[in-house]
Amino acid sequence: WDAAYERELQTFQDIGDTGEIWFGEESMVRIIRWLEKHKVPLDSSVLDIGTGNGVLLVELAKSGYMNLTGIDYSPSAIQLSEKVREKEGMSNIKLKVEDFLAPSAELSGFDICIDKGTFDAISLDPSDAVGKRKLYVGSLGRVLKPEGFFLITSCNWTKEELLNEFREGFEILEELPTPKFCFGGRIGNSVTALVFQRK
Fold first, then answer.
1. What is the average per-residue pLDDT within 183-195?
2. pLDDT tens across 142-179, in order?
3. Could you tell me if residue 47 is inside a domain?
4. What residues pair up with 72 in beta bridges, in sequence order?
């Protein structure tokens, strides 16, 4: 990931391109619409887990959210997101190099946690993916307040699989609509987007 974000950082410096938006613009719109529909207060503390280029946080800030934090374990990703934040003039976004599987003590008390693809990436880790998924769920339980919301977008996991992964300490609130496709007479989704609440 460092190499990928170093390339994106160089491209941003060369031509101002912020790089890949995981799951596209509509994934950000889907998250912001849900927050607005449920009248989530603009001063709620929001953590973007695996922020990458930080574009989601910029969009949240443009929508009026004020208490925004992005973490990524890749220093190059945080450098890129800092540059994107500067370009957009969003000085209120906090960014930190942080490994979510071993979060620091000050990473706690969030009202909302958002994940677009980070759980997917952790799930693909060739060394002990099952153990790392358990660490992720444990970290989420530590950083998210009781009754807090967790919004996850995944292309690797079905709704049923995610319900199973997050059964300890979280309950499903809602499945967000995502594009559907039909293959062999069956309808499916290429992306799953769910909202959980911490018990």
1. 81
2. 999 999 999 999 999 999 999 999 999 999 999 998 86
3. yes
4. 97
pTM recorded for the entire structure:
0.86
What whole-number distance in Å separates Cα of residue 36 and Cα of residue 177?
16
Does the residue 160 lie in any domain?
Answer: no
Beta strands 170-176; 192-198: pairing state: antiparallel
DSSP 99-162: -TTS--TTS--EEEEEEESHHHHHHT-SS-HHHHHHHHHHHHHHHEEEEEEEEEEESS--HHHH
Tally the residues of the chain.
Answer: 199
**CB–CB of 142/109 below 8 Å?**
no
Query: What is the domain extent for residue 63?
Result: 1-149
* Full DSSP string of 10-63: HHHHHH------TTHHHHHHHHHHHHHHTT--TT-EEEEET-TT-HHHHHHHHT
CATH number at residue 10: 3.40.50.150
**Tally of domains within the chain:** 1
Rounded to whole angstroms, the Cα distance separating 180 from 195 reads 18
Residue 194 lies in a domain: no
3-class DSSP state for residue 92?
coil
| Neighbour tally for 61: CB within 10 Å | 20
